[in-house]
Amino acid sequence: MSSTTLDSTPSRRGAHAANGAPSGGPGRPAGAGIGPGPTFLRVLNSEFIKFRTLLSTLILLASTAVVMVGFGALSAWGTGQFADAAGSDPQAAEAIAAQGGDLAVTVPTSGIAFAQLILGSLGVLLMSSEFTTGMARSTFAAVPKRIPAFIAKLVVVMVSAFLLTAVSTYVAGLVSVPILDNYGLKLDLGSSQSVKLLLVNSAYVAAVAAIGMALGTLIRNSAGGIMSLVGLFFVAPIAFQLIPGDFFVEARKYLPGNTINPLTAVEHVPETLEVWQAALVLGAWVLVPVVLAMVLLKKRDV
Length: 302
Prior knowledge:
Elements: H1 12-18, H2 40-53, H3 55-86, H4 90-98, H5 112-132, H6 135-142, H7 147-181, H8 192-219, H9 222-242, H10 246-251, H11 260-264, H12 275-299
Helix pairs in contact: 2-7, 3-4, 3-5, 3-7, 5-6, 5-7, 5-8, 5-9, 7-8, 8-9, 8-12
């Protein structure tokens, strides 16, 4: 009858540990191989990987670029037609004069309304899909503090929205230049006003994406979040315009969708917010729902 003999000699690592030597090896403290948890950069990298590998995300990003460039080209053609009509139509000539005579400068940003809807919806989906698919359990099991994951998602969606809007606006400008040239209109993409429009509109769309993500976190439902976004940016301005009363006339200025015009205007338009006021209002519309979303994300169950 044979028996199996077990080696009672402790391993080198175990022997060092038993003798009080640090298990991390020479020059390394004990437990050096065990980190304190996921760092923010690692969380940010993981969120970026999830963002760029989702087919739905890529479709929405591509759709935004196509819409921006397409509406830029369509707006260039329409602006050229309008400029031609101004030669024989006094009312059209007055409309051009009322806008300073430079209609071409706003052509590349003519698709911003659609870009804010698509990328705002992307912001909603980025967080609401975590809850509808159950992925939130895995995400917050890996990042128990939750806030780093939320901030990482916020950084990814805002930076992506800003860069995509900026690039799409510039490409729309490049496509519009030859179309406008056919009608004798000039578009200088390097002018200070063109650069201002590009940067401000890109920052605005990034803010809308942040608001969308906050709504997706608060409502935790994709359809509900997108409808709330549409109501806030598209329905509310129309409703406030139709409802009579000085209160709604004044309150309409403080809706987030109405802050972009004061921010991009060449000169201050009467009865609108000043530039610094519009910037503060838009910042508040981003900050308040984002902070509220983070607070509720910590308190509510996944």
